[in-house]
Amino acid sequence: KQEVTQIPAxxxxxxxxxxVLNCSFTDSAIYNLQWFRQDPGKGLTSLLLIQSSQRxxxxxxxxxxxxxxxxxxxxxxxxxxxxxxxxxxxxxINVGGSQGNLIFGKGTKLSVKP
Amino acid sequence: ETGVTQSPTHLIKTRGQQVTLxxxxxxxxxxVSWYQQALGQGPQFIFQYYREEENGRGNFPPRFSGLxxxxxxxxxxxxxxxxxxxxxxxxxxxPGGRGxxxxxxxxxxxxxxxxxxx
Lengths: 114, 118
Fold this sequence. Notes:
The complex is a heterodimer of chains A (114) and B (118). Chain A is mainly beta and 114 residues long. Helices cover 0% and strands 58% of the residues of chain A. Chain A is built from no helices and 11 strands. In chain A, the strands form 2 sheets. In chain A, strands 2, 4, 5, 9, 10 and 11 form a 6-stranded mixed β-sheet that branches. Chain B is mainly β and 118 residues long. Chain B starts with a strand and ends with a strand. At the A-B interface, strand 4, strand 5, strand 9 and strand 10 of A face strand 4, strand 5, strand 9 and strand 10 of B.
């Protein structure tokens, strides 16, 4: 059974710091891995999607890497801003799973202090 | 182009009651998935609908049921509500149909329906 773990559960940093969020998964047979952002009481916003054949994806100040063989992904946020404060979730789709069946971690709650 | 819309945004029910949550998929999307997100947890997959049929189900009991309509909108029904059903219920749509996911099959999530069971 696929399990997705995110470390740390919570993180507080001063504005301007670079930071790394970690995600691990137990079964490497995945179609893709996706990082989401969730603001309090809101839905999910997709940030980056990495196909199983890819190693990384970048969007602005965000960079996500994928090491499928070791079951790990990292989300790197450069020059953090207070507006980055949110919960960050990673999710995978297993090979053989339906496209809507994402398996999520519990998230990392990020707080960026001005 | 509109995104995914869900209704109601908040509702309160008592134990044993039934609830129906609604979701309108994004224009051009034919697949809808439902998730349950308890406080402090990641979303848990309930089921997926494609062309009005259930196409994949998570570990949820039969009292969780759904429908998809010809316009691809969807309903989630929960019978015999329990206290642990209190959660944020998220709907997501995608354009990809029954096949495996590809780069284009990115889910678009709605803002959710917050259900409280007393």
